[in-house]
Design brief:
single chain, mainly alpha, two-stranded antiparallel ribbon, 2 strands
């Protein structure tokens, strides 16, 4: 089991990776708030920007999710980690939105563990682009 340390409201918290089924259930919770936003942004290219009505609809459909994002991130953090849920009131009272975003991003790394694989692949790709190393000349 992997753990990470997140910093919220002046304190460090250990967050443990959840077993596979709990991770899957938590990931499913992401679909509602963010799935609609992603779908709408994918359709944004089809929006006629000369049409005030279409632009207003796009803004109306996306801004609600964006405005609620810090609260949504906090709730998702509490749902993932019992350690964070136990400190809910302190975190809600004292944490900054930027801290919530950083913690959420770190928790995503636990819930989607293929991120480490992608980093390794990216590292190999970066090495390949630099070409072979021949040592000092």
């Amino acid at each position: 089991m992997r753990t990470i340390t997140v910093h919220l409201a002046g304190r460090a918290y250990e967050v443990a990776e959840q077993p596979s089924r709990r991770n899957a259930a938590w990931r499913a919770q992401l679909r509602e708030p963010f799935g609609a936003l992603v779908a709408r942004l994918e359709q944004a290219g089809e929006t006629d920007i000369t049409s005030l009505e279409q632009v207003a609809t796009l803004v109306r459909e996306t801004v609600g999710t964006l405005l609620a994002a810090p609260d949504t991130l906090a709730e998702l953090l509490f749902a993932y980690s019992p350690a964070l849920a136990a400190e809910r009131e302190h975190i809600l009272e004292e944490a900054y939105d930027s801290e919530l975003m950083a913690a959420f991003t770190a928790v995503l790394g636990l819930a989607y563990p293929f991120g480490a694989v992608l980093q390794k692949v990216k590292g190999l790709a970066d090495l390949g682009q630099k070409g072979p190393t021949t040592g000092p000349s």
